[in-house]
Records
---
Amino acid sequence: MDRLGDEVRKELGRFGPEGDIGRVVEAWPAAVGETIARNAWPARISRDGTLHVATRDSVWAFELGQQAGRIRERLGELAPPALRFAPGRIPEPGAAPEPVEPAKPHAEPDPEARKVAATLASEIGDEALRSLVERAIAASLARPADDRPL
């Protein structure tokens, strides 16, 4: 069985600095130590290469901002040109990833829903747009009322 890691890294490299987030996340705990890793976690890399780090609270953000140079040194070759710390969501140690709910099957619109959709979209002049709006309305009407967002 072939490993995909190298291929994935190659593809992510096409995105410039933003593509390095996986490597930074992998190196983060060893570079900053266990205590900081529990209270701050890499969130994203912006286009200009700045690493945005989510922290447990504003106190951590301030303290780590004071240590940005040292953290960059410890990240070595993965060091971004700048670090920005701000309070945000960080993963809990040992927490399992949040489960993803499977997509619900789409209900097919009945003839009545299609008729209502055609009536509501009938005044749209652009034929392609009118067709898209009709389909969207019909699909919305086909969903159960308790499944519709408010």
---
Amino acid sequence: MASASAVSRTKAPTRVPMAPHRKTSLAAGVLYLITFISIPTLALYGPIREAGYMVGTGSDTGVIVGGILELIVALAGVGTAVVLFSVLKKQNETLAVGLIGSRIVEAAAIFVGIGSLLTMVTLRQDGAGADATVVGDALLALYDRVFLLGQSTMPIVNALLLGTLMYQSRLVPRLLPILGLIGAPLLLAANTGILFDLWDRTSAIPAIAFIPIAIWEFSLGAYLVVKGFRPEGLARLGVTSSQASESRG
């Protein structure tokens, strides 16, 4: 009897496998949180905006690190749409495909912006000198305009597409997508002001206008990591009650 009890106590507990929809929500949530790692780039890119950068001799490490961070963000952004597609297509396949396309356009713009800054670094390291100052200014202006179109305008499209999908499906609390849907027109207005030179891209107005969408995306990522999809939302999309229960594991 004692031996049987010992065997019983040492038997490993049976692990309940994670439901597919829980894996999807966890992966999407992690990817959304990764997209926030580029926040330090504003400081990292500081030296490249200083007068005389092209003829200076300081370190380029910050710019290179910033480029790597933006590269990761671009790939993670595409990943969020791809991972969520299997679930979101059950609500509206057209909007779900549109979200992937929007994320790809955003990533492409980020790649172009990174390329312009790294080209500046290359010219500087090759000792192009004062003759490259005009080229450097042009490349920096290109980065700012591409940033406006990519990392500042495409989030508006993303918020409208994903916000609509999440609001209709109720996969997450409706307050979260509402933040994105409210933030989209605010950011559009701020970007329009930048386009017509009413204020600078790094001024307070665009930063404030971006807050609702930033909160929406960060909260969505955190919710999907911690909670996963809501069972009632999964049920609306045709997932059985047992699967919905498992997705909360």
---
Amino acid sequence: MSDADLFCWDAAYLYRVTPAEFTAETDGAWYALCELNGLYETNGDAELFVSPGLMYEAARWTLELSVQVPVWQSLDHRPAAEYLLSVGLRFAW
């Protein structure tokens, strides 16, 4: 177990694929997404991933699927990741 502190950061860009216009009557929308995911630990370990994916947004829930691909890794205290699959489900209350 490590005593290192972890700093995570994420940046995302979404592009609505369909529908062309989002109105109050729209049931849902599909988005293409691209994220940058960064990790830095105070023990010196650091990683940067690019994550392309798809997202469906409905009125009360959102489903997202992406693949994290390592762009840069500097790791001494744990194994390097090759590829990661990310699945997310969110609900609006």
---
Amino acid sequence: MVGKWHVGLSYWEETPVGRGFDTYMGFFEGSMDHWTQAYNTCAAGECPAQITFPNPTMAAAGLSGNYIDWWCTDKPCWGKNGTEFVMGENGQVVGRDHDYTDWQATQECIRIVKEHDVDIPLFFYVAFQVNHTPLEVPDRYIERYPATWREDRRWYAGMATYWDEAMGNITATYKARGMWDNTLVVVSRCLHLK
């Protein structure tokens, strides 16, 4: 399993590995900064589109410091969270490409598919964070869309393009391994309705 879990973490049995996944790279909570993997403590629907670091919602919630929510199977992904970021050309925070949460998730997916024995069935659950607040993506994805668009619309469109490219890279790996003809892909989108 790779990506967002967000369905329990209080007990080991509630975690992805506790639920039967062999490996896990991802985060347990609902949202985090895409570049630093710092947990976002604001309530659902109340998060600003852009989170700065240190995350101001943590102080508002009475928490000190930033909590990193980035896990590798049964322990924190030590040293994999991003620490460098700047204000990007398009009004949002950007960091190094290899620190971006879904870049790391995509690389982990590709690694697993490349190392998997093609004669053994594989169930793979991937839940990207991209297209979830805070709206953050490398500048080059935002710049594919007209500057006349609303800022948040450009950011979201850039994130959708990132997601599409990541899925294409994973799909290409399945094809290169000769696994594609025996693969069923299910794509789902969760909507939060009030």
